[in-house]
């Protein structure tokens, strides 16, 4: 897996991702404690609303940012957005009102809505080999999991000597270091695409996404992932501090258990995906998440909660890690940024639904009802994913070869020159201008 680190550009980009994630993880812990300080037992509601605002920024702005990114150098865009996020993190320790949290979260996540899909779409251009890209996806998943594991542990250690607002300083340092690492290497330019209107560029990724059956199934699986992870992200601090009457270090331990479970799955996946299509492990991950939510009401001690969070983390990584492979195989290189932005927006639309549900139902009806409601939502998403995403057959890098023809194209068209004309015209098909459906 580590062989991909021989690529200097990827190595620096991965380091930038890890450092920025570590800083973001410190901010996540600090934000939960800030919400508790301001709102007390209503901290889950505050966090749920703040995260819903984050999702609104992601859903509304990611496709627009993707359309604008076609006109800007990737390095300039990535560095500028890192600096914006650092400036916002610098302001968070001075928050005294709930609405301050909401406003700053929107500004920070508006920058992330442009940064993350652009960053994700850059990696396939840096690592064009499918096997290397698969391992890069697992390393990326491990980076997220290390953040989930190490950030709470680092936060717990720091909280023994400093107050929680100091944790936001780590976020500022993380974003600044990320910007420096991006500057230090050449960033591939996006593949040129035909001239299109801003509206066409903004909506192209969404249209390609819904025209591809496996991606419609992925969207349903995104709902499963969102239901389970929302329970963890929104309600961990309230469960640990309110329900179990424990302290801040135990909040960090519970979050670290989720990250540890996810890390175990990410370490196993590269070997699995070398010999198996993406669909079985991703649906298995969705099943683990659904079952974990359904058994949540019986996690009536802190120790059982830690075990449950580790199980949910394992299922989370199984369902999430291969996503980049599906997106890569489903679009031409010039359409990848738009498709990654569409996945970013649509997956976060699922969190836009589940974050406030997790917070509001937890505050109003209790945690048992929240587990069962989110488990029912996840179960429905899992059944829909299995129905929409039929078994592709073959490995994930093999788009389905389909026999078809293009009677409307002139005989000297480059596409026909490559693959031939007539009833024997056959090649792997992704949705594009010449192939509006698969």
TrEMBL record:
Which residues are in the Major facilitator superfamily (MFS) profile domain?
9-393
Q: Which CDD domains match?
A: MFS_MefA_like
Give TM regions. 12-39, 45-69, 217-239, 251-269, 281-296, 302-319, 339-358, 370-389
Which residues belong to the signal peptide in this entry? none
**What keywords were assigned to this record?**
Cell membrane, Membrane, Plasmid, Transmembrane, Transmembrane helix
- Location in the cell: Cell membrane
**Superkingdom of the source species:** Bacteria
Identify one Gene Ontology CC term for this UniProt entry: plasma membrane
Where is the sequence biased in composition, kind Basic and acidic residues?
A: 429-438
Give the chief site where it resides.
membrane
Q: Which GO terms describe its molecular function?
A: transmembrane transporter activity
Annotated region described as Disordered, given as residue ranges: 419-438
- The organism encoding this protein is Phaeobacter inhibens
Q: How does it sit in the membrane?
A: Multi-pass membrane protein
| Entries under InterPro entries matching the protein | MFS, MFS_dom, MFS_trans_sf
State what protein this is by name.
Transporter, MFS family
